Amino acid sequence: MNFSKRDQKHNWHPYTQHKTAADFPAIVKGKDALLWDENGNEYIDAIASWWVNPFGHSNQVIADAIYKQLTTLEHVLFGGFTHNKAVELSEKLMEILPSNQKKIFYSDNGSTAVEIAIKSALQYNYNKGIKKLKIIAFEDAFHGDTFGAMAASGITFFTEAFKGSLLEVVRIPVPTNGNEDKSIKALKKLVETNEFAAFVFEPLVLGAAGMVMYQPEVLDKLITICKQNNVFTIADEVMTGFGKTGKTFACDYLEQKPDMMCLSKALTGGTIPMAITTFSQEIFDGFYDDDTNKALFHGHTFTANPTGCAAALASISLLQTDEIEANILRVNQSHLSFQEKIKLHPRVQTTRVLGVIFALEIKRESQESYYGNFRNKLYHFFIENGVILRPVGNIVYILPPYIIENQQLEKVYSTIEKALEEIF
């Protein structure tokens, strides 16, 4: 078979410099928290395959829902039609979303969910005859790779080639411990100009920045400032949504609620690409008009795909079980215990935990590049030891499937401890 060698002939992988990349393991099977490659090597998927598989691989409940849907209606266009699964999913989401969310717009992935939110904020003002063309975002944010989402992202090497082609975005400091006042003051100064349509943020955890965390109280203050100055707020819950932070959504920790939310990744339990942007009634009403030109002219061929909707309904049903709630708590407690053990290690700079998310920053004399040599050494060390982790520079994070077993978690922890001793 040798899929690993054959892969190189035609496939172009994401975030990869193929001239220097090693061969990729070819995964042929997955079950629960484990993956196996074509050579029979076993790996613990400690990042839930880019944060999408909270219920593990080859989940039977979701697979059965998909199969049943495929034998009934695999797809129908959503332009001019609807179907029962889209209706049922929207109703289910209304039960679990913050109470101010009233409308659902379906798309394909996290980037487009953010893209739709940004476009909606801009067009809402355009429809009202108001000129607001700028967006506010956090430093070091990541919101996706389409042009609007990319513009809102603050990781520069992702966007360097496209300077001058992007929407104007002004960044404020992330309100981490000690930086709260600086972030608040920066936002106040910007919104007073009346030039900004929206503030887009990853609530409580900046994922691609290295699981950087901040407190809900300061985010409440930032959202309040935006509301007082007629700036829409967009919560990018693509990573944090559906239980990752210990609550269904990170926004459930807040008193204030965003005007828009972006959902994807764990939405379908890691099975079918799908995304959702949710809106308050006020935003929808800004497009509700006798003038056809004021409609939101955005769409995707697979918008509200019935099979994806069926997968999402099954995924949400799993999330709401007592078993999964207990597993989320179990993983959180395990992370906290490991944090107590490892935080005083001489090579550990900082640690942080929220829900099923654990992050550890390794001490380095100089700042590590995102995909630098040290990061790559760590990555390959973990793979060689049967654990899938994707460090961000010198930050190692764990974000496992909720169903990961205790002994599997212990192997992940011990492998990180081993790396701290050997990768120097």
Automatic annotation (TrEMBL):
The record marks Y15 as: Participates in the substrate recognition with KAPA and in a stacking interaction with the adenine ring of SAM. Pyridoxal 5'-phosphate binds at G110, S111, D236, H300, T301. Its cofactor is pyridoxal 5'-phosphate. It catalyses: (8S)-8-amino-7-oxononanoate + S-adenosyl-L-methionine = S-adenosyl-4-methylsulfanyl-2-oxobutanoate + (7R,8S)-7,8-diammoniononanoate. InterPro entries: Aminotrans_3, BioA, PyrdxlP-dep_Trfase, PyrdxlP-dep_Trfase_major, PyrdxlP-dep_Trfase_small. Belongs to the class-III pyridoxal-phosphate-dependent aminotransferase family. BioA subfamily. This is Adenosylmethionine-8-amino-7-oxononanoate aminotransferase. It comes from Flavobacterium dankookense.
